Amino acid sequence: MGPSRNSEWRCFFCLHVRTATVLLGIWHLILHVLAISVLAIILRNHQQLMAEQQTTPDYIEPNNLLPTPLSKVKDNDNPYFLPTTQDGRTPYTSDMDMGAVMSVCTLGITLLMVYGTLKGRASHLLPFFCLQLFDFAITTLTATGYFCYLRSVHSLVADHWHNLPFRKELLQLSPQYLSLIVLVAFLVSMLWKAYCIGIIWRCYKFLTLRKQAMRSTVHYILPGDGSERLPEPDYSSLLPDYEAACASVLKQPPPPSYAVAMSCLPPAYSNTQISADSATNNDADNNNTTENQVIQTAVVENENTKDDEQPQVFIGPIFYGINLGWTSPVLPRLENNNFTLPVTLTVSEGSWVGSMIALGVLVASVPAGYLGDRFGPKKCILYFVLPTLISTVMVTLAKDVYLLCAGRFFVGLGAGGISALSSVYLVEIADVLQRGNIASFYELQINGGVLLVLVCGVYIHYIKLTIIFCIFTMFFGIVFLFFPESPVYLLKRNKQEEAINALKFYRSDRFNIQSSIETMRNGFHLREKVNIRKTLVSKPVIRGLVTCCGLTTFQQLSGIDCIIFYNVQILQVADTNTDAYLLATILATVQFLSQFIFIFIVEKAPRRVLMSCSAAVCGVSLFVLGLYFHLKQNKYYFFGMNYMPLTCLSIYLMGFSFGVRPIPWILNGELFPPTVKGLATGIITFVHWMLLFINTKVFPVVMKNSGAQYPFYLYGFSMVICVVFIKLCVIETRGKTLEEIQKELNF
After folding, report:
1. What is the dihedral of CA 122, 123, 127, 133, to 10 degrees?
2. 8 A C-beta contact, residue 345 and residue 401
3. 424-440 pLDDT tens trace
4. Who's near 662: CB < 8 A, 6+ residues apart?
5. CA 33, CA 28: separation in Å to the nearest integer?
6. Segment 550-572, tens digit of pLDDT
7. Which of 119, 132, 575, 615 has the fewest CB atoms within 10 Å, i.e. is most exposed?
8. How far apart are CA 718 and CA 592, in angstroms?
9. What's in the keyword line of the UniProt record (predicted)?
């Protein structure tokens, strides 16, 4: 990589980023071993802990300076605390059990990071990198909460921080100096965490570039006598023999991987790709040459390298997931009359609050593509931050359901616009290989946002929760101001010099910027020559639309968004004698981990097999969950019955993450030719969000008035029909080229 770039891989003035990453991993391993040891001691002595806990004062004190977490508010109808078990275990020791499980999981992620750093496998660093980003977000929320009470920090240290080092010396200081010390300590800790995250990211880039450099290195022979020469390498892996070279001309390249297909881009095909003439009707043959040229211009010339992307752009899906999961911890509080909140909702009003975000996303996603092409993706992303600010003001000032629904509609506008245009922006600035890495974690980041808002919503008032996440959105907008406009948009406006500078902002000097600019220009000029109307009415495109719209319909009829929106309420109705918020957090964690595992198994099995098995698993788990509610309504009980809701929903989320959720969007990238992919995606997106709005609006009302078992019976029956639909209407696309897929659709 050259001596001129050695300084880029240094940290702490002398250490290499790889060495620093290993040391950082060892430090985390030591902390994990200590934490697990302490938890083991605590779990073995839970009786003594219970006795000590009984001697401590109650949680709510008259002079308590911090706000009482909503989970600690006494509610006779839905108590937060778990009942004491027969062996004397308390909710505190149950939290220790959960802490031990999470510590073991994070220990495994840390071991994976250390192993990947030592072995030079960059992909092994990504789980630890995502974990550190999540930890940074939690630390930021904690610091923000303490900043709200910075003036009372002296009393806070005196009344609550009993185990703080140098506590007596700190209490002797004046409140002003103590507040300054606490503020500096928080800022230093945040800067340190950010610096460590930067080290891990730079190590990931180093290992990636190092691996690519080793692949492109030409074998050489050392000077001197024959004894000093390296052994003769095997060139068969680099250059094939004559027969293999001739045969490779007739061999068609496979379709893109899951990561590239999910990036919402036309897949890259080599120049030996046979033109996709079967993608249109026989009367549209005059468009085939132009369409083949469009496909060929999508080839990325720098396939042996990766660009240096800016990680700040990738946080858009997290905001999207946060807004989707907002209703899960908030709505149960708003619908409970025992809480003194500004708004008290009925079930029908709560269904409007939950579903209005879908209507907002639907309204924003339809014109987002046109607005991005007309005014530029960057400007429109910044404009869509404004609805989020308006939503925060409405939710904060809401005294009735109408203003609250309006606020949720505006947050849907902001989330939908930012999510749609962020993907467009990333597509236009990223290399194909880097787009794959970005798209692989898109769904993972959405699930991470759902998990984040669920954990925070247990302890933070919904108004403060909305304000905190609005601050994050504003921070995203401020940072994004310093990013350049999309190079494709600049080229369309004949601003070639600005487009080159924009591309240089994301790519190092090693890349052929001029060649990339020419590829972009030729690509969108050739696309304008294609007759989209004739292509859209062709048989393969119509069959592709029927397939994708049908799978999207069954995806919504599986009830996934209702479970995400109302999982706390579902678990409260299930009445398992366990805190619904704790179970909802477990379910969100299961969904997050399942989506992460799916990234590595999607190319290991055929698409139809994965979808069929996924739909079957979802159908069985939904039927069993409906049976649980049916038995509970008729007052039938048996041993272990309380474990059925958590078990069924966990199996459902795992099965759903392995097929029914992601594969329809993969097929969306594989079934359509590049010329109509954007329009087809728009139609499918419209169907998706319209069904989501109807489903999330009707579900809580039906569950309240008719019984919780009937929606789950309906969802389970829909999954059975989905298996039949997959068998009859969905073709297999794994390992097939675009031409083969279009021929099969045209049959």
Report:
1. 60
2. yes
3. 676 666 654 454 445 55
4. 258, 262, 443, 595, 598, 602
5. 9
6. 998 999 899 888 888 888 889 88
7. 119
8. 24
9. Cell membrane, Glycoprotein, Membrane, Sugar transport, Transmembrane, Transmembrane helix, Transport
